Amino acid sequence: MKKEKYNNYLQGLLIGFMALSVSACASDLQTKVAGNLMALSKNQTVAILPIETSDTGQKEMAEMFRLGLYANLKQSKFQLLERYVVDGLLQQNKLTDPANFLTINPMQFGEILGVDAIVFSRINKVERSYLVVHSSIELSVSVQMVDTRSGEILWRAEQTEQDFSGIGKIPTGITTAILAPIQFVTNKFNLRRMTSNMVDKLTSLIKHPSEASEESQFVEPVIAKNATNDLKKIEELQQLKSEWQQALVLDEESELSGFGMEAPEVVAIPASIPVEQNIKSTPVAVKETNRVESEISPLPGKHEIKRSQSAEPIPMNALPTKIAEPIIVIEGVEKNVLPATQSNSAVKQSAPKKPLLYTIQVGAYKTKAYANTLEQFLKRKGYDAFVTRSAKKIYRVQVDRFGSKEDATKLAQRIQTKEKLKNFVTRFSGV
Amino acid sequence: MLLRKIFIFIVLISGLLGGCGTVELTVRKNLDHPNIHPKTVAILPFTLASSAPEDVPAHKLFRECFFNYFSYLGYVDIPLETIDSKLQAAGLRKFKKVLELSPERLRDILGVDAVIKGQVLDTSNFTGGLHAETSIKAKIIMLDLRTGETLWETEHTESTYSGILSPTVVEIIQDQMENVKVHQVLYKTAKMFSLSMIREIPDPSEVWHEKIRLPQITSIETNLKPNQKLHPNDQIYVNLKGDPGLKGSFGIGSWKSNIPLKEIVPGMYSGSYVVQENDEITSALIIGTLKNSQGLAGKRFYKSGMAEIEKTSDL
After folding, report:
1. A272 and B268: CB-CB below 8 Å?
2. Which contiguous run of DSSP H or E holds residue B75?
3. Chain A: nearest CA to B91, how far in angstroms?
4. Which residue has the higher pLDDT, B248 or A226?
5. B chain contacts of residue A152, beta-carbon cutoff 8 Å
């Protein structure tokens, strides 16, 4: 009977200790993965970016956390880009502040680092508290893995880890009751151990995404905010470009039928690239990539195309291109040849009555607002730009009038070189 | 006087309770100059001097664990499977024989600048009464295969200890419970060993920062037009200009990757993809990739058109 009582007492004590031991190290982990995470294989490379911290005192923990992430994710299905490569490339691109990483489009990281996905992390809290017979450490982190190819969030996790030492853990003596709490918060090993345990738990799902329960999976693909904004911009830009192209084609047709002139020449397409036959109206795909880049988040130190302050749309051909042979000279009879150095006003003054005048056409649109935007853009640059309306209700943006085709050609070339605007010389038919 | 005694006591107890000593790593050669630092490193199979508790393959476990942490440093570390298959292909199936090979022979087989040799000298796992202890004693060296010199070495014992000196009863019970899971506790000890070592091993990361160069792609072109809808049997053509002599490929968003590009003339890569009946592509950007022999990739997005299949409902 006595023995039974003793056993019960021991069992109770053990259960009590067990409960304490479980509560001693509290952990709160919320993690979700996307189905597409499973599609990552050894062919895909992931970069773990430097960790964002909110306090300089968190640097050591951040370094340990990143080390832990590397060591754990090394066991996953995908490749990891070496840390020194990540850091070196970020440094070369002057991206040294992790606090800015989330504002940068994942696609840009894809191009800068040559990776398929990136891992952003942030240390939210490293808190040590000491109250004579009780001390505690609380750590909190957030992690997000984003696919650079689509902007999809592949993994998102938030974790808080707490541990304490002191009276609650039943000290083995009076001395330890006082010393253990001090030792707990001052010994760096405890922080290292906690961080290591934290990363182990945090990464367990991403190492085995197929084991994710239903509630640990995103119901629908979630796109990172910065990627959503920029993808939207790209789509809008494409929409505008599509309209501009349509307008240009219409205008070219009207020019051809109206004046019997040659159509503007587009950039020569290498014979080895059959695809370009389909994109005649999209002359320089090469630089268009850069154009769009500038429409996305600008990178420090990188050349950015200045957009109009009012955020009005600027036609694609208002942005830099690399066209070597710019202009099509329209056939016509030359009259009143003026010296190249002569000013525009001089041109106007010396023009005889009802002369045959030439102008430079830089754009043509179905929408008047677009034409006006380009007109304003050119006026700000000091050109005598104006908008004319054709019989087919196409708004044409033209620059200056010339008595001679040569003079018009010279300015056209200058606009081409300086402003990177594709253009051609045509007859001036009045405003 | 009393304060001094308390301080000494704290220091002593911290050391005992910590259960993790600092690794004393001896650097044999000054590695300050970038040309001296080995770039590619292979971690050779570790050996085990005596059998580990419950026959846990402690040497394999430690090697894998060490590799995971070592990869954080600025070396190009060769995957363990690659090392093992190269050694096996050279007829070296016994680990001990690998340790006896000359630096020249190792360099011939593995093609790396340096190797790491590891010997697990002793392992222990004991749980009884108030005492629980697990330890790994190992000797690890890095050998420069270009010169035959030892770059650094260490012999260290890493222990996780819990006993009468543990400050709280709960911790004693916790440690006892954990210590009986031999495989897990040995891995945990190996992890703490590796963590302590990584902090001491010379890290050449910063030496390479300025020298890293990804393959360059100067342009990417496709036949995709803005707002174009694709249909089955449509062909997406991709042309890419960049560094010559590399492995070119392109991807359609995250939906499909590694579609090969052929280098038609040096620096000009070309390829295509035919849209299939069951393909489901929504607003996907075309991404061109050039990969070099080290596995570094240069990527470029084509942003002037997106791949999008016309859904039946759109018709």
Report:
1. yes
2. none
3. 27
4. B248
5. 254
The chain A residue lying nearest B298, using CA atoms, is A114
What lies within 8 Å, CB to CB, of A306 at 6+ separation is: none
Q: Is A41 on the interface with B (CB under 8 A)?
A: no
Instruction: Specify the amino acid at residue A161.
Output: E
Chain B partners of A193 at a C-beta cutoff of 8 Å? Answer: 192
Of the residues B20, B170, B203, B262, the best mutation for testing chain A's interface (the one with the most A CB atoms within 10 Å of its CB) is B170
Decide: helix, strand or coil at residue B1: coil
Burial of A307 (0-12, 13-18, 19+ CB in 10 A): middle
Please check whether residue A204 touches B, CB under 8 A. no
In single-letter form, the type of residue at position A33 comes to V
pTM over 0.80, yes/no: no
The secondary element (H helix, E strand) that includes residue A347 is helix A344-350
Q: What residue ranges in chain B does DSSP mark as E strands?
A: 25-27, 40-43, 47-48, 76-77, 114-128, 131-144, 150-162, 217-222, 235-242, 247-252, 256-265, 268-274, 284-291, 297-307
Phi-psi group of B199: left, alpha or beta (phi > 0 → left; psi -120 to 50 → alpha; rest → beta): alpha
Q: Mean pLDDT across the stretch A343-361?
A: 59
Q: How far is residue A337's CA from residue A30's CA, in Å, rounded to a whole number?
A: 77
Nearest Cα to Cα of residue A317 among A405, A252, A407: A252
Distance CA B284, CA B299 (A): 15
The per-residue pLDDT for A3 is: 56
What span, in angstroms and rounded, lies between the C-alpha atoms of B225 and A279? Answer: 7
| One-letter amino acid for residue B164 of the chain | I
Give, as one character, the DSSP assignment of residue B242.
E
A16–chain B Cβ distance below 8 A for any pair = no
What are the tokens at B147? 């010169």
Residues of A within 8 A of B303 (CB-CB) are 234, 288-289, 292-293
Sort out which chain B residues have CB atoms less than 8 A from A92's CB and list them.
209-210, 212
Residue count of chain B: 315
- Identify the closest residue of chain A to B258 by CA–CA distance: A43
Instruction: Tell me the three state secondary structure of residue A212.
Output: coil
Rg of chain B over CA atoms, in angstroms?
27
Task: Name residues whose C-beta falls within 8 Å of residue A249's C-beta, 6 or more positions apart in sequence.
Answer: A281
Contacts of B194 in chain A (CB under 8 A): 71
Name the H helices within A187-275: 188-207, 225-259
Q: Which residues pair with B259 in a beta bridge?
A: B250
Residues 6 or more apart whose CB falls under 8 angstroms from that of A92 comprise B209, B210, B212
Q: Read off the tokens for A386.
A: 């104006």
H or E stretch at A117: strand A117-130
Contact B130/A at CB under 8 A: no
pLDDT digits (tens, 9 = 90+) for A119-136: 999 999 888 887 777 788
